[in-house]
Amino acid sequence: MLDTTTIIGLIAAFCTTVSFLPQALQTIKTKDTKGISLSMYSLFTFGTLLWLTFGIMSTNYPIMIANGITLVLALIILTCKIRYN
Fold first, then answer.
1. pLDDT tens digit string along 35-57?
2. Is 73 within 8 Å of 20 (Cβ atoms)?
3. pTM of this prediction?
4. CATH code of domain 21-84
5. Residue spans per domain, the chain
6. How far is CA 4 from CA 8, 19, 77, in A?
7. Residue 84, C-beta contacts closer than 8 angstroms, at least 6 positions apart
């Protein structure tokens, strides 16, 4: 059984990760990245990679899951920004 802290972490991970899905889908669909800052998204993506690394090193599953999925979505958006800019 999961403890309350883990449940809160999983719910938070779900909310913050799912929030990236509409942006990723919109970016893929329209290829419009004018409103996205390359430097901000590069830094954000790197930070997400570091959070994923932290989650792995500390075996914190909510952090690993959320940042693993968010990293994929952020990389999709960042790739589109670089490709279609």
1. 899 999 999 999 999 999 999 99
2. yes
3. 0.85
4. 1.20.1280.290
5. 21-84
6. 6, 23, 33
7. 31, 32, 33
